[in-house]
Amino acid sequence: MSIYQDLSDFELWEIFRAGDKNPLEFLYLRHYDLLLNYGLKFIKDEELVKDAIHDLFVKLYIKQKIDSTISVRAYLLKSLRNLLYDMLNTFHEISIEQIEYEFSIVDAEIENLYKKSDIDVVRSKKLINALAKLNGNQKMILYLRYIKELSYKEIAEILNINEQSSMNLVFRTLKKIRKFMLFF
């Protein structure tokens, strides 16, 4: 059993920043699935996303000065997004705004949530249609907040906005979903 296993992300990060490279392995194992799922929302090439995750941790390993962060998870997600953008931009000369964030929900998943009555089935169809009408940023904000359960502060760090703006984006997106559901 390792001394690092029970430490928080923040504690591991601070030990890593102090020069001990061993906590990086625990951060990698702890966040790999999250990073892979997040990267696949931007790029469907799983091998490219895996390569980017490995590149991210190699860069962290060899980096001389590591920045302090409140949320390691947000730092890693933001770094991966930037790395994927750089990789795509190198080959295709696109801007980060052109990368479409894909958030898909299988009809059956929502129908399972609402399988009590015909009214619930209608609600599930409305929700599916409402989600389909959202743009990439709106889908991403919902994914980060409600699927990955990131705080508004973490979302703000990932998207390079302030915390209040991340709260506003979530609120406006939910408002838009409600509006779409009313007119379905």
Q: Would you summarize the structure shown here?
A:
69% of the residues lie in helices and 0% in strands.
List the helices and strands and how they pair.
Blueprint: H1 9-17, H2 23-40, H3 46-62, H4 72-92, H5 107-113, H6 118-132, H7 136-147, H8 152-159, H9 163-182
Helix pairs in contact: 1-2, 2-3, 2-4, 3-4, 4-8, 5-6, 6-9, 7-9, 8-9
Characterization of the model:
- By secondary structure, this protein is mainly α.
- The protein is built from 9 helices and no strands.
- Helix 2 (23-40) runs antiparallel to helix 3 (46-62), helix 3 (46-62) packs across helix 4 and helix 8 (152-159) packs across helix 9.
- The longest helix has 21 residues, at 72-92.
- Residues 93-99 have low confidence and may be disordered.
Structural class: mainly alpha
Number of helices: 9
Average pLDDT number: 82
Overall strand count = 0
Largest sheet: none
Distance from first to last alpha carbon: 55 Å
In one word, what is the shape? elongated
Classify the helix fraction into a percent range: 55-70%
Rg is: 19 Å
Strand content: under 5%
> Low-confidence segments, ≥5 residues, pLDDT <50?
93-99
User: What letter string, H or E per element, gives the SSE order?
Assistant: HHHHHHHHH
Characteristic terms for this protein:
single chain, 184 residues, mainly alpha, 69% helix, elongated
